[in-house]
Amino acid sequence: MILIYPPVAKPCEPPAGIARLLGALKAHGIKGSAVDANLEGMLYLLHQTQYPSDTWTYRAFRKRLDHLISLRGRGIYGQPGQYRRAVGDVNRVLEQSSADQGAIVSLSNYRHSKLSPVKSSDLVRAAGSPEENPFYPYFKSRLKESIESAGHRQIGFSLNYLSQALCTFAMIGFLKKTYAGLTIYLGGGLVTSWMSSPGWSNGRNPFAGLVDHMIAGPGERPLLSLRGVDALQEHYKPDYSPFLSNEYMAPGLILPYSASDGCYWSKCRFCPESVEGNPYRPIPAGQMQSEIDDLCGCGEKKRPVLVHVLDNAMSKSFMKSMSCVGAGTPWYGFARVEEPLADPSFCESLRLSGCVMLKLGIESGDQGVLDRMQKGTNLETVSRVLKTLAEAGIATYVYLIFGTPYESEYEAEKTLDFTVRHSSEIGFLNLALFNMPINSPDAAAFGTGTFYEGDLSLYTEFGHPKGWTRKRVKRFLEGTFKRHPAIAPIIRREPPFFTSNHAPLFKKPLPA
Asked: Do 264 and 209 have their domain in common?
């Protein structure tokens, strides 16, 4: 069986979901291989040799391989200006290399001038004309080589983001046209969201004839069952061996690791974890620590430079375990803003364990908004946590969301004031506009129509009860929030395209 990670996603670390599936197959003696078509496809486009005529793009093409080398080194992450130039030039080459096919490929996205990833009919069209995809020359050769050399007849795709959807179906279409009798499996985070939406009735498969099996949620047990095997356990140690020789855009191997499925809080309004019914399943602390130790000990050449904890929110027990033992290498992940992180001694132990950055979903600087969102967060605690983490030397990547039904411009101004007061303690900022999930309980009360035109859209337009429209929110963010002299420097620190995935690499010192 071949498991494929399709373009386009940030090409800086191996695909964790496929590593988990490989681990489950391996534990049951089932032969499996993997292709990171996302990284390989981007490198294919970057190695094209047709130079453009305009000066800026010519310079980007001429320097692209040097930039790739620098992004795989350590020095550039201490030089923000050079980093931005390298990433910007690499991205421009990707854009120009794909423009003739009506697509725009970037380091983090894929857009098409005529096809939409939220329309099942357009995904079927992409499958019907795979040769029109800019990655076609790459995946035509790569998939033929993989299938014909090993005789695999079962192919699985991990589809997690909208930016991967059109390329996924182009690859599926190529396989169906070229090889009779293949069995195609399709799973991943985006597929889980599709299958959990109200319009997806039981047994409905708009991709019949292309996809044989669609899998929602964690895929290990369903995939094994479809192979006629009873799963021995809920969790299997991931297998990253097929990816260790890949040259990702990072200064060494960044190892993604999930210590749990679901979210231990799972009460926030508009959160897909509660609506999709994903249960919280943590890995026992002893097993988790043993696996991290094993995965981090994969040889000096490929010893990770960073562990990326993928949990929706790292539990208190997970962080306590890490603070006692550590990963043996720098690590970061998402954490809820709760009391243990206000304890200076606990934060100091986290830093000593290798924690270089925590991502914090603060969302708002108004307590009333947080209460209505059911965040379970107290702003006084948030203030103490930000201060304590800064004093411990742990960077923070703060997420704020604007335009929820509970916010008006008055509450947004309070978020601005809160952010300004803590600007010296915030390393990075992610500012998001609220989208109303189509399967949210509030969609019926506020929803007014589709957000994106398409039967696979996960969001709905909504009438804001306080008149705080998206247009007004955008004007506030661009004209007021981002321009504040205390906040503008934080905005400028954001690593373009790679955002939070590269942000920890700017925390000194990097491992020797």
From this structure: no
Co-location of 26 and 40 in the same domain: yes
CA–CA separation, 139 and 11 (whole Å): 17
* pLDDT at residue 279, as a whole number: 85
CA distance 296 to 58: 40
Q: Percent of the chain, pLDDT > 90?
A: 72
Position 285, amino acid: A
CA distance 97 to 112: 14
Say how many residues make up the chain.
512
pLDDT of residue 285: 76
Element (H, E) at 261: strand 260-261
Pair (297, 347) in one structural domain:
no
Q: Is residue 163 part of a domain?
A: yes
State how far the Cα of 317 lies from the Cα of 336, in Å rounded to an integer: 13
Sheet holding 447-450, edge to edge: 436-437, 459-462, 447-450
- Residue 453 placed within a domain: no
Strand 254-257's sheet: what is its strand order? 254-257, 306-314, 331-335, 355-363, 395-402, 428-433
- Bridge pairing between strands 2-5 and 154-158: parallel
Average pLDDT over residues 402-407: 96
Where is average pLDDT lowest: 35-39, 102-106, 194-198?
Answer: 194-198
pTM over 0.85: yes
Domain of 71, in residue numbers: 2-226
pLDDT, tens digit, 9 for 90 and up, residues 308-339 = 999 999 999 899 988 887 656 899 999 999 99
Domain boundary among the residues 303, 335, 367 is at 335
Residue 319 lies in a domain: yes
> Sign of torsion, CA 12 17 18 24?
positive
The answer to whether residues 322 and 357 belong to one domain is no
Whether pLDDT at 427 is above 80? yes
Alpha-carbon distance of 309 to 511, in angstroms, equals 18
Half-sphere exposure of 127 (CA within 13 A, CB side): 22
For 121, residues 6+ apart whose C-beta sits below 8 A from its C-beta are: 455
Strands 260-261 and 281-282: antiparallel
What is the rounded CA–CA span in Å between residue 473 and residue 415?
A: 13
φ and ψ at 246, to 5 degrees? -75, 150
Assigned domain for 396 exists: yes
Any idea which residue has 């009333």 for tokens? 368
What is the total count of domains within the chain? 3
- For 360, the 3-state DSSP assignment is strand
Pairing state of beta strands 260-261 and 254-257? Answer: unpaired
Does 283 share its domain with 356? no
The number of beta carbons lying within 10 Å of the beta carbon of residue 27 is 17
| Cα 328 to Cα 332: distance, rounded to the nearest angstrom | 13
**Beta carbons of 258 and 280 less than 8 angstroms apart:** no
Please check the confidence at residue 501 and state whether its pLDDT lies above 70: yes
- Alpha-carbon dihedral sign for residues 109, 110, 115, 117: negative
